[in-house]
Amino acid sequence: MPNVAEYFAENVFNDAVMKQMLSDEVYSSVQQTISNNQPLDPTVADAVAAAMKEWAIARGVTHYTHWFQPMTGVTAEKHDSFISPDKNGGVIMEFRGKELIKGEPDASSFPSGGLRATFEARGYTAWDPTSFAFIKDNVLCIPTVFCSYGGQSLDKKTPLLRSMRAIDKQALRVLRLFGNTRATGIVTNVGPEQEYFLVDKQLHDKRRDLIFCGRTLFGARPPKGQELDDHYFGALKPRVAAFMTDIDHELWKLGVLAKTEHNEVAPAQHELAPIFSTTNIATDHNQLTMEIMKKVAARHGLVCLLHEKPFENVNGSGKHNNWSLSTNYGKNLLDPGDSPAENAQFLLFLTAVIKAVDEHQDLLRISVADAGNDHRLGGNEAPPAIVSMFLGSELTAILESIESGTPYSECHIEPLKIGVDNLPVFPRDTTDRNRTSPFAFTGNKFEFRMLGSSASIACTNIMLNTMVADVLGEFADELEAADDFNEALNALIKRTITEHKRIIFNGDGYSDEWQAEAERRGLLNLPSTVDCLPLYITEENISMFGRHGVFTPDEMHSRYEILLEKYIKNVKIEALTAVDMINQEIVPACQKFMLQLTQLIAGKQAIGVDISLESERLNTVSKLTVELDTQCKRLSDCIENPVIDSRDSLEVAKFCRNEILTAMADARSAADKLELMVSKEFWPFPTYDELLFNI
Ligand code: ADP
Ligand code: MG
Predict the structure, then answer these.
(1) Among candidates 332, 304, 150, 163, which has minimal Cα distance to 240?
(2) How far is the CA of 445 from the centre of ligand 1 (A)?
(3) From CA 117, how far away is CA 146, in angstroms rounded?
(4) Ligand 1 nearest-atom number relative to CA 193
(5) How close are the terminal C-alpha atoms of the chain, in Å?
(6) Ligand 1, residues 289, 445, 447, 449: which to mutate, most atoms within 8 A of Cβ?
(7) Structure letter (DSSP) for residue 147
């Protein structure tokens, strides 16, 4: 194996390559573009394109693509070759600045949530120079944003970049108040921990539910699940280890800082975490990671399942979004720091996040809303659907002492004076242990744990950046207008704690008591996607996103529609798959088994042998098969119900949740009982024990 340091990012047209290949003038113009968020100078684009082409062709590349992130949740690419005919019937390899800067894919086949009806079908992609071009499968990929011709965003990247600009602006205002004149930019950083399952490809391909839905729609409990806790951090099986080695290698070539790999709680479940990076890079890299995990798995005869809940009865998969804010000089604003001034600044940023989370619980819940994640949230394995924050006992006690003006502890006799006193040191480790909290402060960052494993991290970070920007803006307004900064700061922090402390909960988020307590506190409890999505387009939310230039009202309505449509389509595909599997596979398997029993009964009767065992078994299987068939018919009726064709997508989505998903659950219940009764030789597809323990 070659030295990683030598091949790391070898397929990335990064800063080092640009420095080497571009003239000083062109290079510094690109740098300006990147660091100041400025548009690329068109005269420079030709030079950059020429260098990119030369670099790519030297690596065997023949095509380029604008690589973008439409609302489908996966990335999109359309390959164009570099070839252009010359006068002699041959070709030359061509790539011009205008092709680098802008592409014009037909937008009509991407979800637009109604934006398309009022605007042209054409869309355009535009290079995002803050994210480096890279080579994937012999194609030069240029990370781009994707918009309609009217300029409305049709992707996840555009609003993410806008939200980063919003928080940059507001956080910088706050920093200036603390006398920081050095920082010229604030970035948000994210480290997404990616969970996934690996299953054997041959077994996978025998299950239509895995093929079409990415999750099992049937499957009785295996005798063993995760109860022995023997998988978490356990030694890697050779096939899994080989996969992980390969995936690291592939990701490193693409400049992805893959760092940690381990077994997760459920059997066949694993995790990959990169070292954190700027939010837009982290978003691109996480999309790449998911794509490459699937590709590399196939090479090993495996399938990588990214669904939030591929199997009942064992843990589902999430994606922890570790989030922090830092200056362009690398100072983490969520790090308490050493001096009283740093501590005061930390407390202000901390309380800003507290207020933002409390005021925008709905947005965080919406940012993880998806048919798949609904099966995971609140399942005693993942955070509940109620948003709350964990700060750890020390930090909570410090905030209480600030609020009440009473001494913090014996070691700190005086009540804390913000901006004058040092914060008492609180140990970082103890803050990280509550795994049941959706939003935990972990020493110098927040870990948001509601996100599902298949989701793009863009939406969550758009919400987070914008809502924190909004609060920081409010704080800056108040403090800028104050005569005495320290006095105003004290009052603001104290007031914010008092008004928003209800969101802080350090107890067990999985418990029933918390549900009741959260209700008493007036926190939102939005169990399903259908419950939370309507809150996306409240006047308040539309106005906040508008205020910060992140979404126009049209864009928000379009996203709301897209999310509802996606939910409906997911449920419909699952329902159709379930009906087909029942009718074409499960019922016939049960019938075969019943035939065998019937023949056995006839044979035994003929020679006068006791048939009680067979008839009892036959009776049970027969009754359960009838029950399964009844539920299947009910499910089919639901799919045919006229409500499904209603133009009111919220009504359809509610029908999907209330009728279709419950019919599916009832059908499953009968099928799973049958699985445990019917001879294994007749069961039509691999069972949980084979899928989970076969690697
Ligand atoms: P664990 O949560 O498994 O104990 P860590 O908390 O150390 O592990 O790291 C989890 C993820 O958080 C990693 O991707 C890591 O790079 C990221 N991370 C660490 N520090 C920060 C930070 N300041 N901002 C954002 N992400 C961070
Ligand atoms: Mg973590």
Answers:
(1) 304
(2) 8
(3) 17
(4) 14
(5) 25
(6) 445
(7) E
Tell me, using a 6 A CB cutoff, whether residue 193 lines ligand 1. Answer: yes
What digits encode the pLDDT tens for the residues 33-53? 887 777 788 889 999 999 999
Question: Can you give the three-state secondary structure of 503-550, one letter per residue?
Answer: HECCCCCCCHHHHHHHHHCCCCECCCHHHHHHHHHCHHHHHHHHHCCC
Least confident of 87-96, 243-252, 325-334, 336-345: 336-345
Task: Tell me, using a 6 A CB cutoff, whether residue 448 lines ligand 1.
Answer: no
Pocket lining: 276 vs ligand 1, CB cutoff 6 Å? yes
pLDDT (0 to 100) of residue 411: 58
Instruction: Tell me the average pLDDT across 462-476.
Output: 98
Amino acid of residue 638: C
CA distance 652 to 38: 43
Count of alpha carbons within 13 Å of 494, Cβ hemisphere only?
17
User: Please, which residues bridge with residue 155 across strands?
Assistant: 70
- Model pLDDT for residues 89-100, shown as the tens digit of each residue: 999 999 999 999
Please give the pLDDT value at position 112: 84
Q: Are 480 and 177 in contact (CB under 8 A)?
A: yes
Instruction: Report whether residue 321 contacts ligand 1, using a CB cutoff of 6 Å.
Output: no
Checking if the pLDDT of 570 tops 70, the result is yes
Name which residue leads in pLDDT, 379 or 144: 144
Residue 586: pLDDT over 60: yes
The CA distance from 586 to 450, in Å, is 34
Q: How far is it, in rounded angstroms, from Cα 305 to Cα 196?
A: 6
**Can you tell me the mean pLDDT for 71-87?**
91
**Which amino acid is located at 211 in the chain?**
I
C-alpha of residue 321 to centroid of ligand 2, in Å: 8
Query: The whole model's pTM is what?
Result: 0.95
Contacts of 177 (CB under 8 A, 6+ apart): 476, 479, 480, 485
- Run of H or E residues at 390: strand 389-390
Residue 273 beta carbon below 6 angstroms from any ligand 1 atom: yes
Helix (H, G, I), strand (E, B) or coil at 410: coil
Query: 223-261 pLDDT, tens per residue?
Result: 888 888 887 888 889 999 999 999 999 999 999 999 998
The residue type at 615:
S
Confidence of residue 150 (pLDDT cuts 50, 70, 90): confident
Kindly give the distance from the C-alpha atom of residue 320 to the centroid of ligand 2, in angstroms, as a whole number: 7
Of all ligands present, the nearest one to the C-alpha of 273 is: 1
**Residue 332, ligand 1, Cβ within 6 A:** yes
Q: What is the pLDDT of residues 625-653, one digit of tens each?
A: 999 999 999 999 999 999 999 999 999 99
> Structure tokens of 112?
């637009």
Which residues are within 8 A (CB) of 231 and not within 5 positions of it... i.e. 6 or more apart?
A: 263, 264, 265, 266, 267, 269
What are the distances in angstroms from CA 552 to CA 124, 153, 183, 368, 431? 18, 9, 30, 21, 38
The one-letter amino acid at 305: L
- 549, 473 contact by CB (below 8 A): no
Sign of the torsion formed by the C-alpha atoms of 495, 496, 500 and 504: negative
- pLDDT for 299 equals 97
Token pair of 144 as six digits: 């781009």
- 484: helix, coil or strand? coil
Cβ of 322 less than 6 Å from ligand 1: yes
Q: Which atom of ligand 1 is nearest to 276's Cα? A: 16
Question: What number of other Cβ atoms are within 10 A of residue 469's Cβ?
Answer: 27
Given a contact cutoff of 8 angstroms between Cβ atoms, the answer to whether 572 and 657 are in contact is: no
User: 584: how many CB neighbours lie within 10 A of its CB?
Assistant: 12
| Residue 24: per-residue pLDDT | 96
Question: Is residue 111 scored above 80 in pLDDT?
Answer: yes
Tokens of 356: 């933002």
According to DSSP, the residues that pair with 124 across neighbouring strands are: 147
% of the chain exceeding 90 in pLDDT: 79
